[in-house]
Amino acid sequence: MSSDYEFSDNEGDYYDSDEMMDFQNDDQDEDDMEMDDYNDDFKISTGSKRKSYEVDHTSLSQTSVEKSMKDDVDHICGILGVEPAAAALLLRHQGWNKELLIERYMDDPAKVLVDSGAAVQEPARDSTSIRTHSVDKFAAGPSSRRATRSSSKLLSSLTSPTRSSAQKYISSPTASASKSRKDAKSSEEPESFVCPICFDDSLELKQIALDCGHSACSGCWNAYTISKIRDEGEHCIRCMTEGCAIVAPDDFVHNILVSDAAPDSDTTENLVAWTRFQEILVRNFVSSNPKLKFCPYPGCTNTVSCPSAASKSVLTSMVPIVSCGAKGIPGSVKDKNAASSASSSGSSNSFYDKEHVFCFGCPIESDHRPVVCGVARLWLKKCEDDSETANWIKSNTKECSKCQSTIEKNGGCNHMTCKKCKYEFCWVCMGPWTEHGTAWYSCNRYDEKGGVEARDAQSRSRASLERYLHYYNRWANHEQSAKLSVELYAKTEKKMEDMQITSELTWIEVQFMKKAVEEVEKCRMTLKWTYAMAYYLARGNEKDLFEDNQRDLEKAVEDLSELLESPIETENIPMLRQKVTDKTVYVQKRNEIVLEDTATGFQDGRWRWNVSVDGFEEPLEEVRVD
Amino acid sequence: MPLCSYEQRIIKETERLVADPAPGITASPHDDNLRYFDVTIQGPEGSPFQNGVFRLELFLPEEYPMAPPKVRFLTKIYHPNIDKLGRICLDILKDKWSPALQIRTVLLSVQALLSAPNPDDPLATDVAKHYKENELDAQRVSREWTEKYASG
Fold first, then answer.
1. Beta bridge partners of B40
2. Biased-composition ranges for Low complexity (chain A) (predicted)?
């Protein structure tokens, strides 16, 4: 185990041990220890040498996030005096807002427990159903009554609470009440059990129920739980009985999937679902804490903590680019590459093993320094608007007006509920649904003013398109050049390594290209984003100075790029090496100047835009560009 | 549990639907596809759909009963929660689905929806608007459509 980690740390690729991690969960102690050691390696210690364009942040593994979740749960257990399983459900229901939870709980503990699915609803409360859908109230009522009349055998098993042995999870005021209710009924318990889901009545069926007492067989619980986790990514696994709001606690899910799984269930599928369930819980916790963000790279389960960028208002004065510390993407180009050139030592793979760098403040999954999130997003949206994909997204999806998740409507009515934040809104006007209950059709009125503005904009669009293309072409070119230089490097490196064998040069001496290419790629990314920034910068001295810095960096990068293209002969290597090293240092300096200058500019509030950007002052009329 | 084990449930549900049909509802599976049902629902008495017989199709997806059945009206109907393609806006067919619900309960819910149109949660926005603004006139149109498309 430990040797695996050491090996992977050296390679900067810990995914080799991914499978092992998945199956280590039973062995918590060892796992924790390993993960802590591993964490320390990836802690990004910034501190005094931090530059003005960098931000303090810490990378957390899934295990350490689970630890802080557990701390919160223990805290709530201590204060409210509930079981850990109930505390976890309460916290999840309140979005991990402890203060709010405690306040609400003190007001009405029974209601909070029922709402979060931790306790059975008191019989007296049945009339004040928490379900809101009006159609449903109408539909479910008569139908379930009729069903009871017509099918005696089947539904008797539905309504009679046959509790399986040790399935008691929650102790709460309401739970004890419901238990006595069940005990009273248990005399009518039928001899044979028919699972209400699969209709199986064989004697070896194992009945399982949550605190509500609605039994089903273990196989159905297993299939249901997997379907909820795998197909719906749901952490809130409710009782299967219609209208029952009890939620399965974590150890119940664990029993269903792992420790007490149905004998004929697929063990691998169970473990995958259990792993996914834990990840969903962590994601839920992370997304409800503004100081945390889940690493967006595929397959990565790390979380980054960046308290200084927790509030949206700081995003006008800083660009919180963070890294979770991990590298590479499991099962991606790297593997294919390794297969095709198994002989090479793997150092050329470093370009595919990209560090997981992303922006803490916005959904952009790369380094968009020097430009702030608001402007970067404006630019990307503008660029995307010209592509077919963007057209599709634009015509088929909308963003949740609360959490900005992209939503595709694939059927049904206009009453939308965001899967992520549960915000209810109208698909047509994107306003909150609550206003629609009484006068939903007010969203049909066309805004005449908007029409006039659209026509004005059209006449200006020709001139502005020219301007846009100037910036866009340079933006796209830097991106393309960065890719090409990496490809060039792969070829060059092969050549250099050959040379190392044929000449007297040492391995160290032929490595200068690598550093140079890395620097070129990095600077091209900076340059790319400077064009997005320049497009939106208001005319004036500040912009001129910015473009001077941009020009200096661009020229230096182009010089270095050209140098990298020059033919390599054994005899001119020392000279080339000197030149490339010098240029690399210079380019690095220029890049730092651009980043430093823009970053301090944001801190001082020096930059002015030619469009309105969230959080910034409105642009003056004379600089406004449409 | 392998998915095919729910074949048994589907067969039992089908047997019961045929042997003991719910009042005003028929459902019969296709011979070549036991997951595809031809359904008829009689318009509930007292509703504008009274005396109408509405044809629907019902399909049980592979994930059934973990996923809801797909139900669609084949007969044209003037109802705020049913659009012109026959799609139905009903919570138990979407996020409120529970595996304990059955074909029978789903169809009873659809029947109940005919008695209780809900224009506050519209699918066919024009119909809903009509229902909101002038319910009597909207019901008149519903009756006309029932007579025109759903009689016989």
1. B26, B55
2. 143-165
Judge contact between A553 and A370, C-beta under 8 A.
no
DSSP three-state, residue A129: coil
Catalytic residues of A, which ones?
Answer: 413
Residue A187 CB burial class (10 angstroms; 0-12, 13-18, ≥19): exposed
CA distance A160 to A162: 6
HEC sequence for B66-128: CCCCEEEECCCCCECCECCCCEECCHHHCCCCCCCCCHHHHHHHHHHHHHCCCCCCCCCHHHH
CA nearest to A190, candidates A161, A219, A227 = A161
Q: With contacts defined as CB-CB under 8 Å, which chain A residues touch B13?
A: 199
Q: Where are the alpha helices (DSSP H) in A151-244?
A: 152-159, 173-185, 218-226, 232
Which of A235, A229, A230, A260 lies closest to A249, judged by CA? Answer: A235
pLDDT > 90? residue A529: yes
pLDDT of res. A332: 53
Residue B113 touches chain A, beta carbons under 8 Å: yes
Which residues of chain B fall short of a pLDDT of 50?
1-3
Reduced to 3 states, what is the DSSP secondary structure of residue A616?
A: coil
Q: What is the largest CA-CA distance in chain B?
A: 52
Q: What digits encode the pLDDT tens for the residues A84-115? A: 999 999 999 999 999 999 999 999 999 999 99
Instruction: Name the pLDDT band for A47 (thresholds 50, 70, 90).
Output: very low
Name the token pair of B132. 């909101």
Return d(Cα A118, Cα A211) in angstroms, integer: 9
Alpha carbons A48 and A593: distance in angstroms, whole number: 19
A379: its two tokens: 């630019």
> Hey, are the CB atoms on B109 and A131 less than 8 Å from each other?
no
What is the C-alpha separation between A588 and A521, in angstroms, rounded?
11
Q: What letters, b where the CB count within 10 A reaches 16 and e where it falls short, cover A217-233?
A: bbbbbbbbbbbbbeeee
Task: Look up the pTM and report it.
Answer: 0.69
Burial of A562 (0-12, 13-18, 19+ CB in 10 A): exposed
From CA B22, how far away is CA B108, in angstroms rounded? 8
**CB A219 to CB B8 under 8 A?**
no
Q: A180, exposed or middle or buried, with CB in 10 Å at 0-12, 13-18, 19+?
A: exposed
What is residue A531's predicted lDDT score, i.e. its pLDDT? 93
* CB-based contact, A51 to chain B, within 8 Å: no
DSSP string spanning A350-367?
A: GGTS-EEEEESSSS--S-
Chain A residues with CB under 8 Å of B98 CB are 238, 240-244
Asked if B89 and A131 count as a contact pair (C-beta separation under 8 A), the reply is no
The conformational region for residue A376 under phi > 0 = left, psi -120 to 50 = alpha, else beta, is alpha
Nearest by Cα to A497 from A346, A361, A326, A611: A346
Q: What is the pLDDT of residue B141?
A: 96
Q: Is 80 exceeded by the pLDDT of residue A191?
A: no
Owner of token pair 């201590």: A78
- Residue A164: name the closest of A252, A274, A267 by CA: A252
Report d(CA A516, CA A588) in Å as an integer. Answer: 10
Assess whether the previous peptide bond of B65 is cis (omega < 30° from 0).
yes
Report residue A520 as tokens: 């070129």
> What's the pLDDT score for residue B101?
94
In whole angstroms, how far apart are CA B86 and each of B47, B79, B81?
19, 10, 9
Strand, helix or coil for residue A620? coil
